[in-house]
Amino acid sequence: METKNQQLFREFNEAFVKGDIEKILASVTDDIVWRMVGNDTIKGIDNLATALQGMDNGNEFELEIEHMITHGKEAAVNGIIHSTNKDGEQRHYSFCDIYKLNKHKDGKIKEIISYVLEI
């Protein structure tokens, strides 16, 4: 059985692959910091909203969560994302996200560090 925080992180990751921008934004603090290692750092909910709108490229995504570790206000989630474009071409990405919440109970995500590799 999942804890409340594990459910939060599962639903958050599912929202990403579904393109559910409302759910993503409702799960983060206004001063969210998302650092994508080797790429950009997004600061603030408005900048995150803008970035998320730019991610809608028409691809279909499937999520496989392999591990989810939560402790207090921190969590790590890793897995694989399968992407299929409109021409049927597939790509696969291994990811690991490190999360920090603003508080332990009923917290929102205030920091994300993402590692993503195409496999």
- How confident is the prediction overall: mean pLDDT? 94
- The CATH architecture term is Roll
CATH hierarchy class name: Alpha Beta
Structural class: alpha+beta
Topology pattern, helix = H, strand = E: HHEEHEEEE
Q: How many discrete domains?
A: 1
- Portion of residues in beta strands equals over 45%
CATH domain fold name = Nuclear Transport Factor 2, Chain: A
- The total count of strands amounts to 6
Question: What's the SSE blueprint?
Answer:
Elements (H helix, E strand, L loop, with lengths): L3 H15 L2 H6 L1 E9 L4 E3 L1 H10 L5 E12 L2 E11 L5 E12 L7 E10 L1
Parallel strand pairs: 1-6
Antiparallel strand pairs: 1-2, 3-4, 4-5, 5-6
Question: What is the gist of this entry?
Answer:
The chain has 119 residues and is α+β, with helices and mostly antiparallel strands. The protein has three helices and six strands; from the N terminus they run ααββαββββ. Residues 10-111 form the SnoaL-like domain.
